[in-house]
Write a structure and sequence with these properties.
Helix content: 40-55%
Number of domains: 1
Order of helices and strands: EHEEHEEHHEHEHEHHHEHHH
Oligomer: single chain
Mean pLDDT: 89
Shape: globular
Number of strands: 9
Structural class: alpha/beta
CATH topology: Rossmann fold
Strand content: 5-15%
Radius of gyration: 19 Å
Distance between the termini: 61 Å
Length: 275
């Protein structure tokens, strides 16, 4: 370790591509000791940082990953919970198994990582946990209800956890990204029935097209990485940081200020729903 002990050790889950990889590469470039983690670490092309195998739905895999870093670095200063995926389709047609899988990764995966890392942070007397949520964790959109619900759950978890661990010098922060250009759309799971025989089909396909248009036309996720760096450097960070374009940035305050019927009409119009 030598002089490296003064450098912050950062663990980023879901680091094979998109937001996670961008964050990991940026922090590595800035001089942090970065460990990426992913279910398929071999999918990271020419990584500039170590990428460990991690399945956040497995208790054993989570402990193996965390223990490996503790063994090599003796600490984890920053945990960035980014691993996740999305399912799409009508609630009526998504299976219970699909919904449970969504929560097992997006919500319970965050819980497992926090439970594994917090004892080491508590012993050190400091630490930072950044949970990557979503604009969809503040306002639900049609045909992504289970994904949004999992992010709503991460929002609530983070609020409670922040209060519980503050006395130990551990900070908990949420980042709520809007649409950014990543491979998230290609990884979204869509039920076959929703694509073909469903009575929801025309509305569903219109909504999916609008979702994918926003995602594919979005900017690169560099602003999220810059936000993460600023949070790490901030002595007393806020709970929430929304990182989105201006129309999406307006959604959270508008939800608080306007009647829900108006918000509902705005969302329906944006996703080409006739209600």
């Amino acid at each position: 370790m030598g002089n490296n002990f003064d450098k912050k050790v950062v663990l980023v889950t879901g680091a094979t591509s998109g937001i996670g990889k961008t964050i990991a590469e940026h922090l590595h470039f800035k001089g942090y000791i970065v460990y990426g983690a992913a279910r398929r670490p071999e999918h990271v092309s020419t990584p500039s940082f170590p990428v460990l195998k991690l399945d956040v739905t497995s208790d054993d895999s989570v402990m193996d990953c965390v223990n490996r870093i503790i063994r090599d670095e003796k600490k984890i200063d920053v945990l960035i919970n980014n691993a996740g995926f999305g399912i799409a389709g009508p609630i009526e047609e998504n299976s219970i198994e699909e919904a449970m899988a969504q929560f097992d990764t997006n919500y319970f995966g965050v819980v497992r990582m926090c439970k594994a890392v917090i004892p080491h942070m508590r012993a050190a007397g400091h630490g930072l946990i950044i949970n990557i949520s979503s604009i969809g964790g503040l306002v639900c959109v049609p045909f992504q209800a289970h994904y949004c619900a999992s992010k709503f759950a991460v929002e609530g978890l983070s609020e409670g956890l922040r209060l519980e661990v503050a006395r130990f010098g551990i900070k908990v922060v949420l980042i709520e990204p809007g649409d950014f250009k990543t491979d998230f759309p290609s990884c979204r799971r869509i039920d076959d029935m929703s694509k073909n025989e469903s009575p929801y089909n025309p509305f569903f396909m219109n909504s999916i097209k609008m979702m994918e248009k926003g995602e594919m036309c979005g900017p690169e996720p560099t602003p999220i990485a810059l936000t993460v760096e600023n949070i790490i450097k901030t002595k007393s960070p806020n709970l929430r940081y929304t990182v989105a374009n201006m129309p999406q940035n307006l959604i959270p305050p508008l939800k608080r200020l306007l009647p829900w019927k108006i918000i509902e009409k705005i969302i329906a119009k944006n996703y080409r729903l006739d209600i």
